Amino acid sequence: MKRFITLGLLSVFLMVFCGAPEEGPATETKPAEEKGVVDVAYGKLTEGELQKFMKVFPVVKEEVEKSGKEFKGDAENWEGWLGQFTTLNKEIAGLDAKLRAAGMPWDEFWPTFGKVWMAVISVMLHKDMDEMEENIKQMEAQLKDPKVPEAQKEMMKQAVKSMTEFKKIYEKVPQGNRDLVKKHWDELSKIMEIED
């Protein structure tokens, strides 16, 4: 359960650092476009991409913090959030130029960020997969019990939904991406401020 709390805190970091853009006129996202963006996050991550990412991530973080923007987003919709992240360079003037100077332009950075981020989540979930499976089974059984109060059932439904989503993310991340992120875990934890 400690891991789930850590994941919750990680999601807060995600929303504070690079969440959804400020509210404005709604734009329609075509499912095919969103699906393409999400698919990028589950592509193969290379050592070269990760090395560039680790060099450039602090620049992005600093620019986001300096922008003073307040970001909002849905911490339970990791994949949907990624689609919004792809345009951050248009919201922060000069971001792409600074990234190019650091060695990785925005159009290379955001797909790599997606792959790294999903692999980080997957690595964090790995130790808890068996426990999560067991918890899902137990809660599903309790949901069928007429003695369980409705309010408790609603909380369990939300918990099962969240755990199922985490499980889907875990299963979609290539093992090679997890291995690469584990190899560089200490440095990634430091620059991304991840607490295990």
SSE arrangement:
Elements: H1 2-18, H2 31-41, H3 47-67, H4 78-85, H5 88-91, H6 95-102, H7 106-126, H8 129-143, H9 150-172, H10 175-183, H11 185-192
Helix pairs in contact: 2-4, 2-7, 3-6, 3-7, 7-9, 7-10, 8-9
Plain-language structure description:
- The chain is an all-alpha fold.
- The chain has one domain.
- 74% of the residues lie in helices and 0% in strands.
- The protein has eleven helices and no strands.
- It has helices at residues 2-18, 31-41, 47-67, 78-85, 88-91, 95-102, 106-126, 129-143, 150-172, 175-183, 185-192.
- Helix 2 (31-41) packs across helix 4 (78-85) and helix 3 runs antiparallel to helix 6.
- The longest helix has 23 residues, at 150-172.
- The chain is elongated.
- It starts with a helix and ends with a helix.
Short description:
With 196 residues, the protein is mainly alpha-helical.
Please name the defining characteristics of this protein.
mainly alpha, 196 residues, single chain
- The radius of gyration is 18 Å
Number of domains: 1
Order of helices and strands: HHHHHHHHHHH
How confident is the prediction overall: mean pLDDT? 78
Any idea what the shape is?
elongated
Number of strands: 0
